[in-house]
Amino acid sequence: MSEKIKYKRVLLKLSGEALKGKNEGGICPETINNIAKQVADVKEMGVDLSLVIGGGNIFRGIAGATKGMDRSNADYVGMLATIMNAIAMQDALENMGIHTRVLSAIEVKEICEPYIRRRAIRHLEKGRVVVFAGGTGNPYFTTDTAACLRAMETGCEVILKATNVDGVYDKDPRKNSDAKFFESLTYLDVLKNKLKVMDATAISLCMDNNLPIIVFNLNKDGNIKRVVTGEKIGTTVGG
User: Fold this and answer.
1) Domain 9-237: CATH superfamily, name plus number
2) Which of 35, 74, 220, 225 is the most buried (most CB within 10 A)?
3) Digit-coded pLDDT (tens) for 156-188
4) CA-CA distance, 52 to 14, in Å (whole number)?
5) What's the angle, vertex CA 219, arms to CA 34 and CA 230, rounded to 5?
């Protein structure tokens, strides 16, 4: 390891939409391979790395509920979508020689391991990338909340929240040229101003346990490594 690491154990939160690339939905092979390459580069630095991936590229529970589905059933379908994404990410990483394990909050023993906290920590200690799937295993909780929960359970120092813009703004910078960029925010700033970092439950969980979140642009190659080495990019939420 020639580069200095600021964070030794991190959790990367990806939206399901991050995997679809320019497609309308599903998984874009080129996009998932590009993400896997960035993850592999960081892993090879000696960082303990885990991931939580949403399922929005396949199915969004909240969207299903608004169209007449029972909310719990819709959320369970969304959780199954996250397992599909996790298996696809595992495949992309292992094709690059990175040992990867998928641990699911919903038991699907034929294709992945059940989530057990001690097992997850042991995988990280053995140098494997761990992909947490199935959300929290409960309806009404987002994958953002699952990411915060798993990060705390496994002793992560920071959550890396990957987005399509450079960090947190007061409004969408892709639609508003006067959007204000925030270099840093407190948890209360995010909650009071209803900034779209993570949902309120996830932010409150991080605030109660003093777990920082760094929001950054995934579309710029090497950004995951830049965050891990302490380079000032994106928006830091904490305090």
Assistant:
1) Acetylglutamate kinase-like (3.40.1160.10)
2) 35
3) 999 999 999 999 999 889 899 899 999 999 999
4) 6
5) 100
